[in-house]
Write a structure and sequence with these properties.
Number of domains: 1
Structural class: mainly alpha
Largest sheet: none
CATH superfamily: Urease accessory protein UreF
Distance between the termini: 26 Å
Helix content: 55-70%
Length: about 220
Amino acid sequence: MQISSPALPVGGFSYSEGIESAVEAGWIEDETTANHWICDQLQLSLSRGDLSVLGQSVAAWRNFDKLRITELNNWILCTRESSETRLQTEQMGRSLVEWIKNQEVVDQDRLDFLLTLSPTWPISFALALAPLQIEPKECLLAYAFSWAENIVQACIKTVPLGQKSGQRILATLRQKIPEAVEYALTLSDNERQTFTPGLAILCANHETQYSRLFRS
């Protein structure tokens, strides 16, 4: 629960993952459109990509499979389609590594190996959870709800929406996240994907968007 908290000092609150551009373009304009957008992002992007990687990464860290960890980390880097989204996963990954160092639950060999990579957010998150005696499903639920809280807060600030609207969206996500997690756990390497061209275009447009609150 601590790792999934928005208060974790990794800077997740500073990214909107294209939502700010979607508002600017008129694709998100109220609670209904925000709800649809976030639920689609959960099912079409997060579930088919990062959540699947996270589940496989927890097992790789527990086995200390260096080759597998490297492959999964590189996949995350290769699927970031704009400079801002790549910056997000790298910055949050590095920040979480600094947090892990102060927890004294991860052995130094694993930490040292992660630092030889360009650590991404899902891979660092997996390392933080790997020593805990919890099932991969619980790891994915924590990751997904952490994402949900940050992304809903981005909508509240950008659209803008009221707090009650945000809570209603979170209630919808709470119902959809378990299904997204179950699906992510079934995916093989060949089935995993991040084909969301509309999101990629918005994230690229955000790099030159006038008057921005968020870093993506």
